[in-house]
Structures are given as C-alpha cells and as structure tokens.
Specification:
Order of helices and strands of chain A: HHHEEHEHEHEHEH
Radius of gyration of chain A: 21 Å
CATH class of the largest domain in chain A: Alpha Beta
Mean pLDDT of chain A: 92
Oligomer: homodimer
CATH architecture of the largest domain in chain A: 3-Layer(aba) Sandwich
Largest sheet of chain A: 4 strands, parallel
Largest interface: A-B, 59 and 60 residues
Strand content of chain A: 5-15%
Number of strands of chain A: 6
Strand order of the largest sheet of chain A: 4-3-5-6
Low-confidence stretches of chain A: none
C-alpha cells in the first residue's frame, strides 16, 4: 500500500488531534483543503496563528479578549453587582447568546477535580475571591457550572467561600431540558428535576 | 450581547467554511485551540500552510505528491498494464487501504457534469487518453467512479473512448454493501444489485 506524502499526512495527524475529529474526518478535511482556493487555506492557517498571538485572558474575569480587559468588563451598562461564574470562555458565549444575564462573569478555566489532581491553585479562584473582597462587594454570585461531579465539587467549594462573605450565591437549576422528554432523561437528572420542582 | 474578539471570531468563520463543520462545531474547535499547547496550534497552522506550499499533483496520474511523480507511478513493482480511474486523490487512498489494486491510477479531479457545466476539458481526461496511446498501451482500465448520476455520465463517456482503442474497460460493481441490510437499501441500489446478481 502506497503511503501519503508527508505534507498531507502530517496535516491529517494534526487535524486528528482536534476534539470530535477522527482520522477519517481529518482525511476528508485535508483533501478538501487541497481542492479549495489557496487564499481560503492561507486565511485558515493565519487565523489559527492569530488566535494565539492576539488573544489573551481578561485580567479581571478571565474571559477571552484582545486587550487588557474584555468587552463585558469594560461595558459600563453591565450590572457590576452580579457575577456569573463559568468553567470556560465558551460558556460566556453561550450565556450571552441566551441574553439571560446582565451582570459580569468570572471564568474559572476548569473545575476542581480531586481525581485529576486539579486544585484551587490551578483555577482562577484566587482572582474570584479578590473580586468578592472589593468595596462594595458584589451582591450576588451565580454559579453556572456544568451539572457534573466536578462541577458539583467546585460549586460546593465556592458556595462556602462566597456565603461566608455574606454574599448571595445560587446555582443554575437542573432538570429536564425544555424540549427534552422524560423517556430519554437519565435517573440522576430526573431526581434533580424532582428536587427542583416548583409550584405552578 | 457581547461580541467575540475578532481573533476568535474570524477563526470561527474560517473553520465554518470546512465541510461538515457548522458554526457550533467551529466555536468548540476555536475555544479548544485557545486551551491546548501553543506548539500544537502552531503545528496545525504550519501543516495547513505546508499542504499548499509542498503538495502538487503527479504529472502522470494526477495523484497528490511532493515530487514530480507520485510514489505509485514511481514504484517499479506496480502493474503498469492496469489503470484504475478515480474522481479524487482521496479515492486512491481508500483503494490503497483496501489492497485490491496492484496497478496504477488516474485521478480525474471531478466528474463530467452537464448540469454544473463541467466538461472533459475541466478534468484530466486528455492526460488519461495520452496514457492510453502509449506503446504498449495498458491492457485494462477500471473505472472506480462513484455510483452517482455524474459518475455514470463520466463512465459512459470514458468507456467509449477506451473501448475504441481496443482496451478492456470495467466499472466497479454496484449493489448492497457488505454489512448493509436490504431494509435500508434504496430502490436504485436494489435494482443495480439485481442487475449485477451472480451465480453462487
């Protein structure tokens, strides 16, 4: 069996490292890039490089930005008394798209994970506590962490530190997603949905 | 709603142009690239650029190569009397992986398509005919074109030109794929499978 030229083989290898792109999809993408306009290919290559050269983390909240502070932290119309804590910058994007939060954010860049050896020092938790200790402090922290084991551990850890400062702390409701069906809902989600039941 | 920094927004736009990558997958990929080692990101960027800088088409068969002629055309152990005609370089990869063809290839880089205005001049058909007119000519041409309307048109067109030179021409069998089930086989495929039935 003939082998592939190194130029395409190493691109396939690099593409395969991306999440949810297997070897077969990587092959299709690589051969696709052989066929399209050279300009499009160079734009993609440059955009990938520019991402790391130009993007950095907001010094206040840890969200992605090209300046010192992100657009949200700089926006005077945002409610500075409310901070929504998320795991990753992509979660900010998701919440902004839903238009449900008018306050600020704080991006932890992960969750505590005893199993994977990730401690508070590996996350932007000290930076969060610094924000809680400003004068005046925020009046509310919303924990928008994923409903996973590590998300739960992190929420419990943070809730204690936030409450002891007398700041209100809540966590996003867990339950059956809108449009989802009970038939395909797992037992843990169902139990949470029952615990979180509300008067109608 | 806050907008994304241009560096990540334009990467998402470029990634969305790739086949089978929607805006949501592009977002996930872009934010993933924010998180991984800088080295891996630069390797991906460089690999994309190198693809177009180093890869070219074999001057004999149109397959991808980094030299003048591809590895298969240069290989003295390949059977030079048999040429397998395919639509795209990725088809060569697929056939090589199956280890069913010991001859050479010819890559058309597309199919004839009256609807999309693609004629013989847009494909590497003149190059194929040149190879059929060598002395001695190949003894067999296998048309491994996709079983689609355009593939059929192209196969009919080529078969005529190959046969009039007294060279044997065949096309890959069409039918129910191994492991497939009749229940999920469309009517056209089933008809072809019946037409192509063989004594057991």
């Amino acid at each position: 069996m003939a082998s592939l030229p190194p130029a395409i083989d190493s691109l396939i290898t690099e593409l395969s490292k991306l999440p949810s792109i297997g070897r077969k999809s990587a092959q299709r993408l690589a051969f696709h890039l052989m066929r399209v306009d050279e300009e499009q290919v160079l734009q993609l290559s440059d955009a990938i490089r520019a991402l790391r050269e130009r993007l950095r983390l907001c010094r206040i909240c840890g969200n992605v930005t090209e300046g010192e502070e992100c657009e949200i932290c700089r926006d005077p119309r945002r409610d500075r008394t409310s901070i929504c804590v998320v795991e990753q910058p992509i979660d900010v994007l998701q919440i902004e798209a839903s238009d449900v939060h008018r306050g600020l954010y704080h991006v932890l860049h992960g969750t505590l994970s005893p199993l994977r050896g990730i401690t508070a020092d590996d996350l932007k938790i000290a930076e969060l506590e610094e924000r809680l200790d400003t004068d005046p402090p925020p009046s509310e922290v919303i924990l928008a962490l994923n409903p996973s084991v590590d998300g739960d551990v992190t929420a419990t850890y943070l809730a204690q530190r936030i409450e002891e400062r007398g700041i209100s702390v809540t966590r996003l409701g867990t339950g059956v997603p809108v449009g989802g069906s009970l038939e395909y809902t797992d037992a843990v989600t169902l139990r949470r949905a029952f615990e979180g039941r509300r008067k109608i």
